[in-house]
Amino acid sequence: NEGRLHNLEELSLHQENLELIGPVLNRTCGNTLKILLLQNNVISKIDKDLRQCRALEYLNLALNNLSIIEGLASCEFLNKLDLTLNFVSLNNLEESLDNLSQLEQLRDLYLIGNPCAEENHLDWKDNSYRMYVISRLPQLERLDGLEVKKSERIAAYQRRSDLAEALKQLCAFQRQNECQQSSRVSDDDVVDNAEELTEHRPEVRSEMSREMAEQLAEKERNERKNQPHFKGEEEIAEEHESAIIKAREREESTKIRMCNEGKWTFRFDEESRPGFLLLSIDIQKHLSSSLIDVDVHPTYVSVVIKSKVLRLILPAEVKADSGTAERSATTGNLLLIMPKVNPNENMISVRAKNRQAASAQNQNNSMKPGDDAKNTEQRHPSGLAVVMFAEGSASLLSNKSVKIDGLVPKRCGGIGAQGGGQLGLEEVTTTWKGKGCRDNTLAQAGEGTCIEHDDIPPPMF
Q1: What value, to the nearest 5°, has the Cα angle with vertex 397 and ends 395 and 403?
Q2: 147 - beta bridge partners?
Q3: Percent of the chain as helix, strand, coil, to the nearest 5
Q4: Which of 186, 312, 385, 442 has the most other CB atoms within 10 Å of its CB?
Q5: What predicted TM-score, i.e. pTM, was given to this entire model?
């Protein structure tokens, strides 16, 4: 039925230890219900619980505690009624059949197992019970699972008055016996009657049903204890409120100490908005904001997130009553914006600069006296490098390039010096043939060798 009750046609509630039907069926599915199974419960009265079930066709009330049949007059389409093993007695049989006679569509009835169906009563033998029921309910086609024959119906109609008179006498005799037994009650009689009690009595069945319900509930509680406990929303909210109260009492009574019980990631920021102290806390996106409590003080902030306390001492004094709290709908992060009492106070940056200056000072103090001389020599080389630098600089100033032979000895893979192994620095004239002209001379030809290149050579020194 896809979980919908307004169009429910069949409902089974057997073995549920129900003591009453209740008005719930009338309000939910009374207009559409056709089959209702209530067997093996402890229902003792129908009353008007089914007054809205006009479409009901089959009602099973077997193995219950009913002593009289009533409250079914509105079930005008009832076709089958099962009252097996109830407690309908002879004293209530006539009234019960009067109520059933109003059901014109009733075709199948089960009363077997009731006290009224027993054949050992005085003057109530030779199928007297069956004949009496058939005479009172002519619309029946089956009684206790047996088809009502036409001959039975004729015989029952002929014996109708005799059966009614016999039933009255039998009921009067039973009432007289009950009165006499109740007047002679004694302690011994109570013990004897207790020994005669059987399980198939309304009181005993009701008591057994309650005991079974208690045992079942105890079993379910034990099973829940052994299973992992999943907290509900109400339990989580109560635990969160308790954590808030404890945190606030501790902050008022003891010294403020920083703590991060939930291991939350947080960041301070004083540069994004000058004059403000920003505190960003990374919180799960799907955590309800009702489980977040923020308490800002001039020198510290206390945030309780799902019963976990985050308490931080602020790097600057803030105005507690002017701060705001924002939460991102995309990431769930919490941002606390707190204006400073002194807008120029920026303790985080000041401490960072102080640490950097102290580190530089310690590094300078740890250097040896000879380190400066070594650094100076490294910065001012001598020997061949000085000569090369001087010649190259002079040629560069005169827009001329130089030819260096013998810079690298032959034994090291070099060309070697010309003219007796002397280092020669000779001027060369470099010409460049570009695309726009046939010959572009960078310097006037002089004494030396002219070398042509496609690209402008870099200065060498």
Answers
A1: 15
A2: 142
A3: 35, 20, 45
A4: 312
A5: 0.49
Q: What's the rounded Cα separation, in Å, for the pair 55 and 105?
A: 11
* pLDDT tens digits for range 417-429: 555 545 454 544 5
Separation of CA 257 from chain center? 34
Element housing 14 (H / E): none
Question: Residue 93's CB: how many other CB atoms inside 10 A?
Answer: 24
Calculate the alpha carbon distances from 353 to 32, 131, 270 in Å: 81, 111, 14
Q: Are the C-beta atoms of residues 388 and 412 closer than 8 Å to each other? A: no
Residue 47 amino acid letter: D
291 three-state secondary structure: helix
- A 10 A CB-CB count for 59 gives 21
Q: Are 107 and 57 in contact (CB under 8 A)?
A: no
Residue 296's SS3 state is strand
The 10s digit of each residue's pLDDT in 403-461 is: 556 666 666 656 655 555 454 545 445 444 444 444 444 444 444 444 444 455 555 54
Number of neighbours of residue 139 by Cβ within 10 angstroms: 13
Best CA proximity match to 343, nearest among 380, 325, 316: 316
DSSP string covering 84-97: TT----HHHHHHHH
The tokens for 348 are 């985080």
